[in-house]
Each structure stands twice: as structure tokens, then as C-alpha cells.
Amino acid sequence: MVTLDEKSKGPMVVRSILVIDDHPLYCDALASTLARIFDRSSVQTANSLCEGLKSVGTRLMPDLVILDLRLPDVMGFSGFFKVKEKLPDVPVLVISAESSDETIQTLMDAGAAGFVPKGASQSVFQVALERIQEGLKFLPAEFRPQTTRSEEEKVSVQQVAQRIADLTPQQSRIMSLICDGKPNKQIAYELDLAEATVKAHITALLRRLKVSNRTQAAMLVKNAGLTSASRLSDTDARALLS
């Protein structure tokens, strides 16, 4: 593993943890691992971003959030930005099957506390948690920093990611289908919407993304690395149980 030199706020007390992950086996494995590492902490799980954010408030104020980057109601980095918007001072450890250097770099530039690839062993995950509890950042051993990225490139990727985060859930679903190359008629069929409704949503999302057509929108999203990654397999999930 690699830890960054800078510290955040020093050692932290972890009394409450929120895990947001849509894969039941992996989510249960995470909760079990956390219960062993933080034996006096409460662990709450959610299977979607919406469910996780709704739980925050009077019933839960987590000291740590563990977030799956790819959720059914999330596109690209939008889930991370929404969690940080609601909990700006809470460390967020991201877990994902999409572990390219570009993805990790973007998340760390945006303020993630660390990144653990799905499929990592329980021992790696435990080290990540220990580092974050000490106030350190955590990165996987195979990560290679993107030293050639300019400040303008960093800002550009984050700006696009934030625009995606600002889309409504329906607009995000439509944007995903656009990136898959689906025509309006097929999108309307898959989402059980009138084609005119789909067109209205597309007009609104193009305005939010500040582009003029579907092709530009798809290229913008793909170039920023915001398209969907492959789903987690049960084999990867069981790595945490070993």
C-alpha cells in the first residue's frame, strides 16, 4: 500500500460507520470486518446512495463513510460528490472494481480519504482502515500517481463530475443509456416513458452539462472517465471473508 505524506485532522475516534454498497455479500462482509476492527462502533449499511443519504441526520451521524463508487442510482463520481456535499468533514473511503490510476487520482484530488479496490483482501482493507483512523490517506500499492496532470485537467474532470452529480436520478439513468448508444425510442421503452418525456429530459441534461447534443454529452462523460464499470463478482466479494 501507499500512504500520502499529509495528514488530515490527526487520529480520529470512530463511533459510527456508514457503508453504502449495493452488493449484499460484499456489504455483509464489510460490516463483519468493521465490527471486528471497531468493536465498539455501530455499523449501518445501505444498498443505494439515496438510502444511505436518507439515513444521515437524527438517526445517524457517521464518523466514517465507506462508499462503493458504482451504485444503481449513481453515475460516475456523482455519489462521492453528493456524500461529500452532505458530510464535508467526514472521511470517505471509496471501494470500487474500477481501479484505474485516473479514477483513483480524481477521487484523491477531490478529497477522498483513501481507495481500496474491490477484490482486495481483508488484511489490506484492515490496513486502510487503520491508516484512515490515524488521519492518514490510503492508496493501493499498484497505484501510480498521475504526475503529468495539470491543475486545469484536474479542475475540468471535477467540474464534469459535479455537473453529472447535479443531474436528477432520471436524467442520470437516461445519460447512462445515451452512453450505451441507445436511441430515444429504446430509452423510452426501457424506462417506460413517453418518447416526448425522454426528449424533455435530454434537453434538460444537455443544458446542465453545457453541451449542445447527445454525442457531445456522451464524449464529455466518457472522456472524464464517468461511464459505468463492470459489476462486482461474488469471487471478489469473498476476498473480504478470507
Please state roughly what percent of the residues sit in beta strands, choosing from under 5%, 5-15%, 15-25%, 25-35%, 35-45% or over 45%.
5-15%
What class would the helix/strand composition place it in?
alpha/beta
Separation of the first and last Cα atoms: 19 Å
| CATH-derived architecture of the largest domain | 3-Layer(aba) Sandwich
Please, how many domains?
Answer: 2
Q: Which consecutive residue ranges, at least 5 long each, have pLDDT under 50?
A: 1-7, 228-233
The CATH homologous superfamily of the largest domain is called Response regulator
CATH level 1 class label of the largest domain: Alpha Beta
List keywords for this structure.
242 residues, Arc Repressor Mutant, subunit A, globular, 5 strands
Question: How does the SSE layout of this entry go?
Answer:
Layout lengths: L15 E5 L3 H14 L4 E5 L2 H7 L8 E5 L9 H9 L5 E5 L4 H9 L4 E4 L4 H12 L17 H15 L3 H11 L4 H8 L3 H15 L4 H10 L10 H5 L4
Parallel strand pairs: 1-2, 1-3, 3-4, 4-5
Descriptive report:
The chain has 242 residues and is an alpha/beta fold. The chain has helices at 24-37, 49-55, 78-86, 101-109, 122-133, 151-165, 169-179, 184-191, 195-209, 214-223, 234-238, and strands at residues 16-20, 42-46, 64-68, 92-96, 114-117. It folds into two domains: 16-147 and 229-241, 3-Layer(aba) Sandwich (Rossmann fold); 151-223, Orthogonal Bundle (Arc Repressor Mutant, subunit A), CATH 1.10.10. Helix content is 48%, strand content 10%. A five-stranded parallel sheet has the order 2-1-3-4-5, with helices on both faces. Helix 3 (78-86) packs across helix 6 and helix 8 packs across helix 9.
